[in-house]
Structures are given as structure tokens and as C-alpha cells.
Specification:
The chain is an alpha+beta fold. The chain contains four helices and five strands, in the order H-H-H-E-E-E-E-H-E. The chain has one domain: endopeptidase fold (from Nostoc punctiforme) (Alpha-Beta Complex), CATH 3.90.1720.10. The longest helix is centred in the first third of the chain and has 32 residues.
């Protein structure tokens, strides 16, 4: 019985390590694409718009869906629970679904901004006032 519990514990630990590895890889992908200029309709590799940045980060990590606008992406992804809203990897939507980004933590998010390009921004009062919802990528 003790061996079975030990094996179950090791399997759980391995699954947790695999999950941690995924999020580390997702974060590395985001970091790789930071500092690129904003170009409307672009989805990488040298430039991005907001939905193209979100799509590219997830596509580079094996999650493929049709490249589309922020508004259509909002309606195609499942709603995030209240607990998922501030977690890394959740997709955040702003300004009546005209803009989107990827949550870093409760205080910041990654996005492609017209004046700055791809960057990490603080979730300050300006951005908090524009949030219209959070979505999660299925399977994560």
C-alpha cells in the first residue's frame, strides 16, 4: 500500500513539473516576442497587432485556432472563472473587445500596443477601467 501511495505521489509530482514546464515555456515565448513593433493585422514574427500577438504566443506553444480579431477571439474562447482572471496565461479583453492581451499577474499584462509595440504594461486604473472580460485557452 505504501508503494502505491508513493507511486501515486510521484506521478502527481511529475504531472505538476510538466505543467510548470509548460508555463515556463509560455513565458519564454512571450519574452521572445517582446519589443516588436505594432502593425495592424500582423501576427509575427517581426511585428504584431494585439490579437496577432496573443494568437502567436499560443500557436508557438501548440494551441492552434483560426487567426482572428480580438472580438471574435473573445467569443471563441471559454470564459475564465473569477479565480483564473488574474492568473498568468489568461487572455484579457479591453475596450468593448477591441483590444486583448495575456495576463502576467494581477498587476500586469502583455500586449501589442499601437504606440509601443509588444510590451508588459501595468494593470493601472486606465486599463482596469477598460477591461470587458477574461477568457481561457481550452486545455489549460
Amino acid at each position: 500500500m505504501r508503494r502505491l501511495l508513493l507511486l501515486l505521489g510521484l506521478a502527481s509530482l511529475a504531472a505538476g513539473a510538466e505543467e510548470t514546464g509548460f508555463w515556463t515555456t509560455l513565458h519564454a515565448t512571450i519574452e521572445h516576442h517582446l519589443g516588436r513593433p505594432y502593425v495592424w493585422g500582423a501576427a509575427g514574427m517581426k511585428s504584431f497587432d494585439c490579437s496577432g500577438f496573443v494568437w502567436r504566443v499560443w500557436a508557438d506553444n501548440g494551441y492552434l485556432w483560426k487567426r482572428t480579431t480580438a472580438r471574435k477571439m473573445y467569443f471563441s474562447l471559454p470564459k475564465a472563472s473569477a479565480g483564473e482572471a488574474g492568473k498568468f496565461g489568461t487572455v484579457v479583453f479591453f475596450d468593448n473587445m477591441k483590444h486583448c492581451g495575456i495576463v502576467n499577474d494581477r498587476g500586469s499584462f502583455y500586449h501589442a500596443q499601437t504606440s509601443v509595440g509588444t510590451n508588459l504594461s501595468r494593470m493601472n486604473d486606465f486599463w482596469k477601467g477598460k477591461v470587458c472580460g477574461y477568457r481561457r485557452v481550452s486545455g489549460r
